[in-house]
Structure formats: structure tokens, C-alpha cells
């Protein structure tokens, strides 16, 4: 089940990237979040039916592939093409940190409430996020930051030129 779902996750990225060219990002991301929320809220009820459980896990991995395929586009929309590569790299550090925190929290929560609360919170947050994304502005003008960065580099270059000149005058005097 895990191997088939992982292959489906990898192959689904082609479908999601193709869909991204025809469907707006907010609509596609909202759809992914709503489906993920629905799967998370109802998976606890079908856990004993093997065929349905397999379909739920397969659908979850396909949705996960869609999220991973959309993240580069969203980061370039928010941070621009100049900074999106750096921010996208930082996202994966966030995955690592969140997995450690998730491991600790799930072990604590599962002991007291069981796994149903984990799925309920995950599904609820996905559905909440599906409605919040329509309030977020995805385009940001980073041109002032680029101008500030260029100005800082120009000032640093002037200082280094002054230091080089003073050193050369001191040596060759």
C-alpha cells in the first residue's frame, strides 16, 4: 500500500503541474486542502474496511503530491523569482523541524485521546486553511528590497575602495 501510494504521489505531480497551467493557484490549492480535510476527518471511520482504507491512503498521497507540486509556484508568487529558490529551500528545513515536533505531539496526544483527535485537528486545520487562502494576497512587490540591497552593496564597495586607497597610500608613500 505504501509503495503504490508513493508511486502515485510522484506521478500525480505531473497531473497537478498540468492543472496548474489551467486552474488558478488559489482554486487548486483550495480544492487540495478541502479534499485533504475531508479525507482526514473521515478516515477514522473506514479504517476497518481494507479496500476503502487503501483508496483513502492513495488519495492522501495524491493530494500530498499536489501540494508539493504547487509550493514552488506559490513561493515564486509571494517572494518573487529572485528569492523563491531560497525560501523554497527553507520550506524543507521546516518539514524536518515539524516532523520532530509532530512525533512528540502525536505520542503525547495519542496516549490521552487516541489517533482520532490527530486526524480531526488535521482535517479541521486543512478546511480552515482552504478558506483563509482566499484572504491572502499572493503578489508582493520586492523591488524596494532589491533597491535597498543594491544600495547597500554600493556603499560597501565605496568603503572597501576607500580602505584599499588608504592602504596603498600608506604602503607606497
What keywords describe this structure?
elongated; 0% strand; single chain; mainly alpha; 173 residues
Question: Could you characterize the architecture of this molecule?
Answer:
There is one protein chain. By secondary structure, the protein is mainly alpha-helical. Helices cover 84% and strands 0% of the residues. The chain is built from 5 helices and no strands. The protein has helices spanning 2-20, 25-42, 50-112, 116-132, 143-171. Helix 1 crosses helix 3 and helix 2 (25-42) crosses helix 3 (50-112). The longest helix is centred in the middle third of the chain and has 63 residues, at 50-112. It is elongated and about 85 Å long. The mean pLDDT is 83.
Q: In a few lines, what is going on in this structure?
A:
By secondary structure, this protein is mostly helical. It contains 5 helices and no strands.
Helix content: over 70%
- Spans of 5+ residues with little confidence (pLDDT < 50)? none
Shape label: elongated
Q: How many angstroms does the end-to-end distance come to?
A: 79 Å
Structure classification = mainly alpha
Taken as a percent bin, the fraction of beta residues is: under 5%
Major sheet description? none
Radius of gyration of CA atoms, rounded to a whole number: 24 Å
Please tally the β strands and state the result.
Answer: 0
Average the pLDDT over all residues and give the rounded result: 83
DSSP helix count? 5
Order of helices and strands: HHHHH
Topology at a glance:
Layout: H1 2-20, H2 25-42, H3 50-112, H4 116-132, H5 143-171
Amino acid at each position: 500500500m505504501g509503495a503504490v501510494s508513493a508511486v502515485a504521489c510522484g506521478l500525480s505531480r505531473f497531473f497537478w503541474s498540468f492543472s496548474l497551467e489551467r486552474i488558478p493557484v488559489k482554486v487548486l490549492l483550495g480544492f487540495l486542502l478541502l479534499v485533504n480535510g475531508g479525507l482526514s476527518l473521515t478516515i477514522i471511520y473506514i479504517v476497518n474496511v481494507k479496500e476503502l482504507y487503501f483508496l483513502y491512503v492513495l488519495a492522501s498521497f495524491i493530494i500530498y503530491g499536489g501540494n508539493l507540486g504547487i509550493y514552488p509556484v506559490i513561493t515564486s508568487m509571494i517572494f518573487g523569482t529572485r528569492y523563491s529558490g531560497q525560501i523554497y529551500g527553507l520550506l524543507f528545513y521546516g518539514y524536518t523541524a515539524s516532523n520532530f515536533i509532530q512525533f512528540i505531539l502525536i505520542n503525547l496526544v495519542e496516549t490521552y485521546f487516541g489517533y482520532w483527535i490527530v486526524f480531526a485537528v488535521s482535517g479541521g486545520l486543512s478546511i480552515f486553511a482552504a478558506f483563509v487562502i482566499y484572504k491572502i494576497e499572493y503578489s508582493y512587490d520586492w523591488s524596494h528590497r532589491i533597491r535597498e540591497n543594491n544600495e547597500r552593496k554600493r556603499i560597501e564597495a565605496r568603503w572597501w575602495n576607500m580602505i584599499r586607497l588608504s592602504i596603498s597610500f600608506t604602503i607606497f608613500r
